[in-house]
Amino acid sequence: MASFPTLKTGAVAQYPSDRATQFSTQTYRFLDGSEQRFPAYGAPLHRWTIKLDLLDEAELKTLADFFASEEGRSGTFSFTDPWDGTTYPSCSFDSDALGMEFKGPQDGATQISIKENRN
């Protein structure tokens, strides 16, 4: 299985990036007004928005090639959380399009959304 590529610095993300944890709770409301709640799936799912700036041509090409090899959302790869170093073995891109901007040498940028998949 493929792993999300790192930058030349060894980092996966740059500041300001974002992460979120998603829970799924089912709620049943009864006629007497009481409620019963339970989790729809056991573990929370994670999502990351990775913002990358000041990338050189090689870093942009590496990210574009990786995105193409995973075929957008259909691929599965491992991703290491830049906040706590945990490696999540089943992740995918959250979009089938990858927007990249290149303004000049050492001045490329992109934003990538990654989501953890349920196993």
Give structural notes.
By secondary structure, this protein is mostly beta strands. The protein has one domain (2-116). It is built from one helix and nine strands. The longest helix is centred in the middle third of the chain and has 14 residues, at 57-70. The chain starts with a strand and ends with a strand.
C-alpha geometry:
elongated
Instruction: Give helix and strand order, one letter per element, not per position.
Output: EEEEEHEEEE
Q: How many structurally independent domains?
A: 1
Question: What is the end-to-end distance?
Answer: 15 Å
Helix content: 10-25%
**Relative strand content:** 35-45%
- What count of helical segments does DSSP give? 1
Radius of gyration: 18 Å
**Number of strand elements:** 9
Q: What's the mean pLDDT score? A: 85
State the low-pLDDT regions, or none.
Answer: none
Largest sheet: 7 strands, mixed
Structural class: mainly beta
Summarize the structure.
The chain is mainly beta. The chain has 1 helix and 9 strands; from the N terminus they run E-E-E-E-E-H-E-E-E-E.
Task: Show the helix and strand layout.
Blueprint: E1 2-3, E2 18-22, E3 25-29, E4 35-39, E5 45-55, H1 57-70, E6 77-80, E7 87-93, E8 100-102, E9 108-116
Parallel strand pairs: 1-6
Antiparallel strand pairs: 2-5, 3-4, 5-9, 6-7, 7-9, 8-9
Keywords:
single chain; 119 residues; mainly beta; 7-stranded mixed β-sheet; two-stranded antiparallel sheet; 1 helix; 9 strands; 43% strand
